[in-house]
Amino acid sequence: MQDDDPVDYQFWSKLDGWSFRDAALLLCGFDPDAVRGSGIRLDSREHPEHLAEASKVYRVLKSTTALGPNVAHPFTVIEHALKKNLPMPTSLLGAVRARFRQEREREGQQIDEILGEAGQAEPHPRSKRFLLRLIYVMATRGYGLKLEQPYNDANEIANDAERLGLVLDRDAVARYLKEARQQAEPKANEE
User: Fold this and answer.
1) Are 88 and 82 a contacting pair, CB within 8 Å?
2) Do 180 and 143 touch, CB atoms closer than 8 A?
3) CA atoms of 116 and 21, how far apart (whole Å)
4) What is the pLDDT of residues 37-73, one digit of tens each?
5) How far, CA to CA in Å, does 57 sit from each of 1, 35, 73, 104, 167?
6) From the DSSP assignment, how many helices (H) and strands (E) are in the chain?
7) Spatial separation of the C-alpha atoms in residues 43 and 27, rounded to whole Å
8) For the chain, which ranges sit under pLDDT 50?
9) How far apart are CA 129 and CA 169, in angstroms?
10) Residue-range domain boundaries for the chain
């Protein structure tokens, strides 16, 4: 990892999408703007020795189906990098985590405003049943999912959300799909 020039991780954490090239360089401690325009390609064998690790990281990012085709949200890149045990400057991780916390806090405030009561985390049981049934209908009819493997089905939904600029936790999507199936299928079988 490069330590010579400090990278402005705060700036990079605010972007809504990183190209795989930028993400690989950031994960290896390089400022993508400093390398831009130099004619260096991370996907070729003809790169400077000091970028060998960035080239490997780039190839790992390009090989995954969990990310978008060319660009991924910083949250998704960091999540994937942690799963794959890729290099990562602690300053980059800290900047992206700070953004994540800020966005979650803002969302929490908006949810409280919608619900009308601060601190009310769970919707009313009837509202929750309705939402789970709606999730079930959208997943089975809109996506054509059987919901037999909710963790596999969650990837498609989370990827579509990401293409729209939304970040959904795949595990949370899978839990809701599983809960929706448990809620709706007995009701559908009764009729």
Assistant:
1) yes
2) no
3) 44
4) 777 777 767 767 888 888 898 888 888 877 777 788 8
5) 12, 16, 16, 28, 22
6) 9, 2
7) 16
8) 1-4, 111-120
9) 21
10) 9-99, 122-190
